[in-house]
Amino acid sequence: MSLSALRRLVCPLFEEPTVFSMSVAENLRLGRPAAGDAELVEAIELAGAQFVYDLPFGFDTRIGEQGMRLSTGQRQRLCIARALVAAPALLIIDDALPAADMLPRALRGASSVVVTRRPSTAQQADRVALLEHGTITHIGTHAELLAQVPRYRHLMTGDHIDCSATIFASSLVEKP
């Protein structure tokens, strides 16, 4: 599989969003250039990015380094809208991203991988993987790992920050 084909299938959404120095519409169409205007409007609505309508030229407003500066929250919402327009097969979500929990529901038919440390997010996943020092050490449901894996239980119930382990919560969203 070529790199460009892989990029069309996967969409990462991280807490620190990336927008490019081009118009809002061009940013939204990066994952699917043929998307129509109605699809952009729908994505803006679903992502809660209605601030676009207040920009000087709406969807034609140039943003990014060479254009209008947006807040982190506005950039996050635009990146969420871009993911909705792209409709990827696999969505990789940083749990710290606002509205991360609504994305798998909005992207029906997509699989999602959520990087999380929150029990409430892990509980919603079909499968959970514990990654320690770059290696997946355990896979199961949240309940299974909580009952059987002391390290997982410690991460999910502790009041500490521990960067040596990460939880991947994977949800397979049913197709409509």
Structural write-up:
There is one protein chain. The protein has 176 residues and is α/β, with parallel strands linked by helices. It folds into two domains: 17-90, Rossmann fold (3-Layer(aba) Sandwich); 117-172, no CATH class. Helices cover 36% and strands 22% of the residues. It is built from eight helices and eight strands. Helix 5 (103-106) links the parallel strand 4 (90-94) and strand 5. Helix 3 crosses helix 4 (72-86). The chain is elongated. 30% of the residues are buried. The mean pLDDT is 84. This is ABC transporter family protein. Residues 7-96 form the ABC transporter domain. It holds the Pfam family ABC_tran. Keywords: Transport.
Distance N terminus to C terminus? 27 Å
What structural class do helix, strand and pairing data support? alpha/beta
Nearest-integer average pLDDT? 84
The helix/strand series, from N terminus to C terminus, equals HEEHHEHEHEHEEHHE
Number of helices: 8
* Annotated CATH architecture of the largest domain: 3-Layer(aba) Sandwich
Strand content: 15-25%
If you consult CATH, what is the topology of the largest domain?
Rossmann fold
Radius of gyration: 18 Å
Query: For the record, what is the CATH homologous superfamily label of the largest domain?
Result: P-loop containing nucleotide triphosphate hydrolases
CATH domain class of the largest domain? Alpha Beta
Low-confidence stretches: none
Read across the widest sheet, the strand sequence of neighbours is 1-4-5-8-6-7
- Give the overall form: elongated
Question: In the residues, how many domains can be counted?
Answer: 2
Domain ABC transporter: 7-96
InterPro entries: ABC_transporter-like_ATP-bd (IPR003439), P-loop_NTPase (IPR027417), Type_1_exporter (IPR039421)
Pfam families: ABC_tran (PF00005)
GO molecular function, one term: ATP binding
